Amino acid sequence: MGDRSAAALGSSLFFLLAPGVVAGLIPWWITRWRTSDLYLWPIRVVGVVMLVTGTVVLVSAFVRFVTEGSGTPAPVAPTQRLVVGGLYRYVRNPMYVAVLATIVGQALVLGRVDLLVYGAVVAIAFVVFVHLYEEPTLLRTYGEDYEEYRREVPGWWPRLRPWTRGGDERVGS
Q1: Is 38 domain-assigned?
Q2: What's the pLDDT score for residue 172?
Q3: What does the pLDDT average to over 23-30?
Q4: What is the band of 1 on the pLDDT scale with cuts at 50, 70, 90?
Q5: Where are the beta strands (DSSP E) in the chain?
Q6: What CATH code is carried by the domain that includes residue 76?
Q7: Cα separation, 74 vs 25, whole angstroms
Q8: Crossing angle between the packed helical segments 94-110 and 113-129, to the nearest 10 degrees
């Protein structure tokens, strides 16, 4: 099996284990997909948009780890190259943002405040994990490339224009 095939298989398994549990199984355990008595259809429409957008962004980010990084998002099977293309040109953590969007989207669709509380706990866990583990690991692994990327691309709120390394428009396309 080639590097890319192994990365695709590993990423698929990690997708089921990490975001599948955090944004799928646990919200189901909390809600059993039952709605609250609060029914405001415009809020549910916003929730559907967030849920669908979050899912698309998440899948896109996982694919990018395979195609651009030749690895997985899993810490046990990291990428061979720093992933800075696609949505990573706008925000450093599109996967985490996407998972949070899916959780908030579910909360809005179902009208469940308990899912919003869960989403806040997940957000705090993500920020702590990124700050204490992920960023130091990426800095050790990719050095100045990651430092430049971290200086230029915000972690949580997307920039309006895509970042390009050294102004080279071909980088990260």
Answers
A1: yes
A2: 41
A3: 98
A4: low
A5: none
A6: 1.20.120.1630
A7: 19
A8: 170
In whole angstroms, what separates CA 131 from the centre of its chain?
Answer: 15
Residue 58 to residue 94: CA distance in whole angstroms:
7
In a domain, 13, yes or no: yes
State how far the Cα of 19 lies from the Cα of 98, in Å rounded to an integer.
Answer: 9
Provide the number of structural domains found in the chain: 1
24, amino acid identity: G
Q: Which two tokens stand for residue 167?
A: 């102004």
112-152 pLDDT, tens digit each? 999 999 999 999 999 999 999 999 999 999 999 999 999 99
The answer to whether residue 102 sits within a structural domain is yes
What six digits make up the tokens of 122?
């997940």
Range of the domain at 87: 3-164
Spatial neighbors of 110 by CB under 8 A, at least 6 apart, are 31, 33, 34, 35, 36, 47
Cβ neighbourhood burial of 124 (10 Å; 0-12, 13-18, 19+): exposed
Give the count of beta carbons closer than 10 Å to the beta carbon of residue 84.
Answer: 23
Whole-model pTM? 0.92
Alpha carbon separation from 84 to 6, 75, 94, 148 (Å, rounded): 21, 17, 11, 11
Lowest mean pLDDT among 3-12, 95-104, 147-156: 3-12
